[in-house]
Amino acid sequence: MRAGNLRAIGLMLVGxxxxxxxxxxxKTLSTRYPALEVTTLRATASLxxxxxxxxxxxxxxxxxxxxxxLYVVRVALGIxxxxxxxxxxxxxxxxxxxxxxxxxxxxxxxxxxVFLGERAPPARWxxxxxxxxxVLIALKPRGAGFVSPGGLAAAASAACYxxxxxxxxxxxxxxxxxxxxxxxxxxxxxxxxxxxAPHWQPIDPRHWPVIAFVGLTGALxxxxxxxxxxxxxxxxxxxxxxxxxxxxxxxxxxxxxxAPLPRVLVGGAIVIAAGVYVxxxxxxxxxxxxxxxxxx
Length: 296
Fold this sequence. Notes:
mainly alpha; 296 residues
């Protein structure tokens, strides 16, 4: 496997774990505050950590942007993604929301083929689909979960995420990781804050540690995801979003008291097998032809 793709996969795996921790914090806050307010807190709390990272690396000169319009679109998608996801986890277990949200990697692979011209062999498409089947086996929403308000919100969040990934790939041609992360989070905090202001709820002092935790994990996860999708083809990196299955189940059990069922273990094994095959297939074809047209 090419070193760049392997590094992108590693960044994605760590990023998924980090964002899963953030999601647990968001679920905790969502029981007390409106979704737009939680979105604002998530973005604003990340800013100090991001600015510290910029200062530490002395990368202020890398904050130039190519297209302001694309950032505006990405912020709109980010608000939609966070608000719908926060609503989803506020009305159902975290793992139920993940079950629907995990359709995002397939959306990314499809959109990458249509808009970016990235190629994925048929066998890899089959592995991605198999991973989705594993997710559905393990985390099938209760009853009519796909048409419930929580399920529909998770699906909308996945769609916003998928389009955002395509924008990251486009922006990555001209903009640095630092620029893509800091301007996105700054604009997200301002716009979401303005929308949340009319219904703002006072912050309970007991929740400040949770907010700080969300900020730290959100900043780190945002950087890891952006770097992963900038470094590697979307169709290679996105399937590893499925590993959120493992962390969602663990957090549901340890934090929220939802014990996993046997079908969860079966589905998890399928997801892991599909992910391993994607790595193997990337190694097999990597030396023969480039997988994505946007890789540098």
